[in-house]
Amino acid sequence: MEKNKRILVLILTLLLSGLYVYLFGFVFFTPDWMTIILDIAFWITLLLYFFLVNEIWTWVKEGKRSELADIVFIAFLFCLIFFLLKDLMTSFMGAFFIYLLLGRSEVKEYEVLSKLLDISLITYAVIFFSGIISRIINNDIILNIAFSFSIWLILGLGFAYFGRKYIVVFRFLSPEYLTLLLYVLAWLV
């Protein structure tokens, strides 16, 4: 990416984050600032925001991302969503959903990886938005249903994308599904 476009990304990041704070902190909501200041998630999110701006600045100067840029971005997204929703699982799913959504363009030329990324992206999106809806209505039933059907969503999308060849692809992904199955079992217990 050209240096002018990278500078534009930095400026947009700063302006949009300032607009976000202004709109949600002063216009749409009037939060209790004392509660926010005492919240540790706020301070961690603020610290990670400064690290993220530093990583973007490094990217603007050098033309390539540092090794920690992706980790800082995911951690910032996780802490920001956790600060807003106070839900650990929704924060994980939201951080990875946004990260995969933005990183989708990097694997477009690889057909199989692109389709596998789409499957993960759709699954994370369903769980993330179900978590947001569950938080809004203050009932976890929608999140629980979405999480329960996520394995079937993965399998259904896999067969929709790959057909019978998905069995071969599925064998290569078996450690991920085994981990997901163990997580589901631990979650049910």
From TrEMBL:
<protein>
    <submittedName>
        <fullName>Uncharacterized protein</fullName>
    </submittedName>
</protein>
<feature type="transmembrane region" description="Helical">
    <location>
        <begin position="72"/>
        <end position="100"/>
    </location>
</feature>
<feature type="transmembrane region" description="Helical">
    <location>
        <begin position="40"/>
        <end position="60"/>
    </location>
</feature>
<feature type="transmembrane region" description="Helical">
    <location>
        <begin position="141"/>
        <end position="162"/>
    </location>
</feature>
<feature type="transmembrane region" description="Helical">
    <location>
        <begin position="7"/>
        <end position="28"/>
    </location>
</feature>
<keyword id="KW-0472">Membrane</keyword>
<keyword id="KW-0812">Transmembrane</keyword>
<keyword id="KW-1133">Transmembrane helix</keyword>
<feature type="transmembrane region" description="Helical">
    <location>
        <begin position="168"/>
        <end position="188"/>
    </location>
</feature>
<feature type="transmembrane region" description="Helical">
    <location>
        <begin position="112"/>
        <end position="134"/>
    </location>
</feature>
